[in-house]
Amino acid sequence: MRKAQLLDDEVVKKCYFTKSISQSISFKGRHTKYQWKVFKKDLNRVSKRFVSKLEYQRKTHNRVSSCSSVNVTFKPEIRRSTTITNHGNILRRRLPTFKEVTSFVLRYMKRHKLQPKEIDRITLTASRFKEVQ
Questions:
Q1: 24-62 pLDDT, tens digit each
Q2: What is the pLDDT of residue 42?
Q3: b/e string for 75-109 if b means 16 or more Cβ within 10 A?
Q4: Sheet holding 67-74: strands in order across?
Q5: Distance between first and last Cα of the chain
Q6: What is the C-alpha separation between 51 and 21, in angstroms, rounded?
Q7: What is the DSSP letter of 118?
């Protein structure tokens, strides 16, 4: 929309993401029969790193992220669709624990009926909204 089309009292607001934090785990080159037990252990490790990055951001910059997403990339030989992105709010105006992040990813996988052997990469991302006029 052009500014010439706006009325005098209307204001253009643009929203964009700033200061994104992400943590990912890759399953390339791993055994195809990846077990849930080992998968949960690796996912806990990634979740702990992700939460520690969020805590560092809060302590040093006094910022709390407002939006988060889970991006799952599949192995090309198993599924046709390559990525599924889920934008959900796991932060809830406070920092999550690593168990909450892990359970969020596991619920996401169960909802989409994903198996550990199908996954190539999982990326957790938290971003902060900034509104500019």
A1: 888 776 655 667 888 888 888 888 888 888 888 878 877
A2: 85
A3: eeeeeeeeeeeeeeebbeeeebebeebbebbeebb
A4: 14-26, 119-132, 67-74, 83-88
A5: 14
A6: 10
A7: G
Residue 53: enclosing H or E segment and its boundaries?
helix 36-61
- Boundaries of every domain in the chain: 19-128
Q: Are 34 and 27 in contact (CB under 8 A)?
A: yes
Question: What architecture is domain 19-128?
Answer: 2-Layer Sandwich (3.30)
What the block records as the tokens of 106 is 């596991």
* Whether 118 contacts 78, CB under 8 Å: yes
Q: What is the pLDDT of residue 15?
A: 58
Question: Which tops the pLDDT comparison, 109 or 45?
Answer: 45
Pairing type for strands 67-74 and 14-26 reads unpaired
Most confident listed range (46-55, 56-65, 91-100, 110-119)? 46-55
Q: Are 70 and 108 in contact (CB under 8 A)?
A: yes
- Torsion, Cα 38 26 116 37, to 10 degrees, reads 10
